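RECORD TYPE: inverse folding
INPUT: structure tokens
STRUCTURE:
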């Protein structure tokens, strides 16, 4: 193991513990953002600041000969859920038990971006402070509000911060949990809102109205039977699932009235062969078929939209949407990443992600080759007693140093 990693191991673990102890729910990331910002300022990077959406950005400027590398992680974590399921632990009082660090966010994904931060600090200490320049920019973006599945913070970073700071990106690494494997693709995910419309009537005379809930029933049957729904096989050989997660009728409650509106939330996962337009088209085809069988049938489908506001006050209307992406295994950056990790004795496997990540922005939307890499195990994401093996996280720290050194032509001996 590199000497700089051995020497900083205890500081790295303490940093992880401090990150976990800072509660950082979506829209409440200010404290953790300030903490990360101070770490970068003390490290001596060229620029460190919080942008308009509340993202933490740190930059080491290169000579302009490339490659320009983006390290990305999200600052927010999901709530801990029932504390009884965490007993005897506290989600925000990290403990080390049998070599594992337990606490909310260590897997998803404070562990991953902590490794990125310490790798950047190593570059500053052993390369920049010795009077050398990187060939390209090295940028860290710790983004807000990823967990609501909207790419809110990363979209702001690309749409505003990169342009304001004249930043380019040739390859991106996301610190989502991968068990030290290298993820080169993910399924798409979108929440669709399907609505049916009827006509109110007194419930003592339902024949006088059109019950919107009744109009929804054949749509639900088609969803659960997959009629007209193309569940393509993803990279793992699994069919991409579809399910219904909510149902609302209006007017509802105890009123003696036939509802004239019914809304369901559809969680739809999909492959890189499909587009959002394809998914919407499936429902439009279902509606067309049902309209011939049901008089006065009326329905609509669209992605779920929210108006979100970050802790800085930045507001945007966003889709609950993570498009699918995939990087070819023969891509130069992918091959060099595996080379770098194997060069330090790691044995990463090629892997894929079934959940949504900000790779939807970096790769699917902006076309940037993207990989996910972290020592944390994805099976603990969002779970009670969330945990990561400390030795795996230390390997992750060393792994990011090796990757950056490979891409920037740095001899690893400078870290010994």
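DESIGNED SEQUENCE:
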């Amino acid at each position: 193991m590199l000497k700089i990693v051995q020497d900083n191991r205890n500081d790295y673990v303490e940093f992880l513990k401090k990150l976990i102890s800072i509660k950082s729910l979506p829209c409440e990331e200010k404290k953790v953002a300030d903490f990360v910002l101070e770490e970068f300022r003390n490290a001596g990077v060229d620029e460190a600041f919080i942008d308009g959406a509340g993202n933490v950005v740190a930059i080491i400027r290169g000579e302009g000969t490339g490659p320009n590398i983006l390290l990305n992680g999200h600052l927010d974590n999901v709530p801990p859920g029932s504390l009884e399921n965490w007993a005897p632990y506290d989600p925000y009082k990290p403990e080390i038990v049998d070599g594992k660090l337990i606490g909310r966010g260590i897997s998803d994904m404070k562990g991953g971006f902590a490794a990125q931060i310490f790798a950047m600090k190593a570059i500053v200490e052993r390369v920049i402070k010795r009077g050398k320049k990187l060939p390209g920019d090295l940028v860290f973006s710790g983004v807000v509000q990823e967990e609501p599945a909207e790419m809110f913070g990363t979209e702001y970073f690309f749409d505003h911060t990169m342009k304001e700071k004249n930043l380019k990106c040739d390859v991106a690494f996301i610190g989502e949990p991968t068990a030290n494997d290298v993820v080169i693709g993910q399924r798409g995910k979108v929440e669709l809102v399907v609505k049916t419309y009827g006509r109110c009537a007194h419930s003592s005379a339902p024949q006088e109205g059109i019950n919107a809930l009744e109009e929804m029933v054949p749509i639900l049957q088609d969803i659960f039977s997959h009629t007209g729904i193309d569940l393509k096989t993803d990279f793992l050989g699994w069919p991409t699932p579809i399910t219904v997660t909510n149902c609302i009728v209006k007017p509802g409650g105890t009123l003696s009235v036939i509802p004239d509106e019914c809304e369901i939330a559809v969680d739809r996962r999909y492959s890189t062969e499909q587009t959002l337009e394809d998914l919407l088209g499936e429902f439009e085809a279902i509606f067309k078929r049902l309209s011939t069988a049901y008089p006065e049938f009326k329905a609509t489908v669209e992605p779920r939209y929210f108006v979100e506001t970050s802790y800085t006050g930045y507001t945007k209307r966003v889709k609950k949407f993570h498009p699918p992406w995939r990087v070819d295994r023969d891509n130069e950056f992918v091959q060099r990443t595996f080379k770098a990790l194997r060069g330090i004795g790691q044995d990463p496997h090629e892997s894929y992600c079934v959940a949504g990540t900000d790779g939807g922005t970096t790769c699917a939307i902006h076309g940037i080759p993207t990989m996910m890499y972290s020592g944390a195990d994805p099976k603990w994401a969002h779970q009670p007693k969330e945990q990561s093996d400390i030795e795996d996280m230390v390997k992750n720290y060393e792994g990011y140093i090796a990757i950056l050194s490979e891409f920037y032509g740095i001899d690893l001996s400078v870290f010994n």
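NOTES: The chain has a mean pLDDT of 96.
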